[in-house]
Write a structure and sequence with these properties.
It is built from 9 helices and no strands. With 184 residues, it is mainly alpha-helical.
């Protein structure tokens, strides 16, 4: 089987299982079963579960960046693009597989014991903040607004996961509009 297909199957299965059950609750055998890839091949590609977790997070980081960028490109008006971040969250929170932010969840599970996982989560959140800083600057608002919006967005992610409701995206969007208007 093509090595890229094998790797994709492993990462797909691991991402689904980690998302549904958490990283610590999923063993390598479950990933083998979910992917249809032999345990020997799994360990050839990922000698440890930590390496697999890191690969899943790195791939997820790129997917989120690409999705968010494409989503925001549909907004012509700069201030609406800022609020579009929260529209993106709303669409994400409505997905059947939404269980919260992979980076927040994985950092909560492993961030204290796996520095590489912590670094990947921090890098992802820094990239999200950089995206917010870009859209805020393009809307002619002060840079510190982006930091405030990042707190709103991350809080909405955690709250939506806990409550199982997409409502926090709208609530955070409403609060973001107030901050955006006040920052003129």
């Amino acid at each position: 089987m093509d090595p890229e297909i094998v790797q994709s199957r492993l990462l797909d299965a691991a991402e689904v299982l980690f998302n549904e059950h958490g990283v610590q609750a999923v063993g390598m055998d479950a990933i083998r079963s979910g992917s249809g890839v032999s345990l020997k091949r799994l360990y050839q590609l990922y000698p440890s579960k930590d390496r697999l977790v890191e690969a899943v997070l790195q791939r997820r980081d790129q997917v989120v960046r690409d999705e968010l960028g494409a989503f925001l490109a549909a907004y012509d008006e700069p201030a609406e693009r800022v609020l579009g971040v929260f529209d993106y969250l709303d669409a994400w929170f409505r997905r059947d597989d939404f269980r919260g932010c992979t980076f927040i969840n994985t950092f909560g599970e492993l961030g204290g014991v796996n520095e590489e996982v912590a670094d990947i989560a921090r890098t992802h959140k820094a990239a999200f903040l950089a995206c917010l800083r870009d859209v805020v600057a393009n809307a002619g608002r002060p840079a510190e607004l982006a930091d405030q919006l990042a707190i709103l967005a991350n809080g909405a992610m955690a709250t939506a996961a806990i409550t199982g409701s997409p409502a926090p995206a709208h609530q955070a969007r409403d609060a973001a509009r107030v901050l955006l208007d006040a920052a003129r």
